[in-house]
Amino acid sequence: MLLIKSVLVLCSAVAVLAQRHAYAGADAAASAALFFGEDTTESIDPLKIFKDPINHATAVSSILAFSAETTGFKPSEKSAESLTETLPEFMKRISAFPAFILVSSSESGGVQLKDHTTAEEFENKIGNLFGGDHSHKIAFKLAELLPLDLDYEEATRLKNWILGLVVIDKPKGSDKVSIQLVSMELSIAFDKEPKTCSGPTPTPEAYIPEQAVKILVSKFDVNSSFLTGYAESLVEKLPIVDVERMIALLTSPARNGPEPEDLLSLWASQQKVFSF
């Protein structure tokens, strides 16, 4: 058992080193979080959040939020440039948490993207890399993080990006919780003077140039016995943060998804259906 634990710790350390290496030379970063499955949390009692496995989706969310707070990783608040300093420490903190047991770590080192790859093409290209039932949803979320809204000054200053994603999965009908940490390196270029043969001159825009993209995925199982056995100690140190709030804390402002105004308009239009 000691040997197995040592191997797991070593593998976790290797995964962290690989992730830290991936951030070398990055100019900016963007982050998001996803939850799949069923959040069965039924208690607001902090002790029961850790003591009872039915509440462990919230327990894991609390650990992730605390890890972000203690490492200064605040993608919902801070600039993309500053995240390159805190994202590695956040990933390291998660990987080192005793209840998160590394089960696999893999790197896709040569995902080839053509020049001027669109967000949709990017999503389709990486859509099968993550395994399981949610691979394309993960790819869609990463595509939303693509910094294709940069202006010329930003694109020339922030060429090399890291996209990070935290995925929690708690299958329906099960108390088992797992975590995926996904990170990828990506370069951005800018058409300062895009050319056109006819018609109006197109607006200059950031784009994805031809490149081979590296994607690192580390998967962890959550040891529910640890959370249950150390519930009292965890409650003393960690504030309780639910899944929805955790996702908001770990998510950078949307770049390729609907604008807030569009979402508000959509919501307002839907209310008419329920009016009396």
Keywords:
two-stranded antiparallel ribbon, disordered C terminus, 5-stranded mixed beta sheet, alpha+beta, 276 residues, elongated, 7 strands, 11 helices
How would you describe this structure to a colleague?
There is one protein chain. This protein has 276 residues and is of the alpha+beta class. The chain has 11 helices and 7 strands. The strands form 2 sheets. Strands 1-3-4-7-2 form a 5-stranded mixed β-sheet, with helices on both faces. A two-stranded antiparallel sheet has the order 5-6.
Query: What integer value in Å does the Rg equal?
Result: 20 Å
Count the strands? Answer: 7
What profile does the largest beta sheet have? 5 strands, mixed
- Topology as H/E string? HEHHHEHHHEEEEEHHHH
Strand content: 15-25%
Label the overall shape: elongated
Mean pLDDT: 82
Broad structural category = alpha+beta
What low-confidence regions span 5 or more consecutive residues with pLDDT below 50? 1-18, 257-276
> Percent range for helical residues?
40-55%
Distance between the termini: 64 Å
What strand order characterises the main sheet? 1-3-4-7-2
Set down the secondary structure blueprint.
Elements: H1 2-22, E1 28-37, H2 46-51, H3 56-71, H4 83-96, E2 100-113, H5 119-126, H6 135-145, H7 152-157, E3 160-170, E4 178-187, E5 189-191, E6 205-207, E7 211-222, H8 224-229, H9 231-237, H10 243-249, H11 260-271
Brief synopsis:
41% of the residues lie in helices and 23% in strands. The chain is built from eleven helices and seven strands. It has helices at residues 2-22, 46-51, 56-71, 83-96, 119-126, 135-145, 152-157, 224-229, 231-237, 243-249, 260-271; strands spanning 28-37, 100-113, 160-170, 178-187, 189-191, 205-207, 211-222.
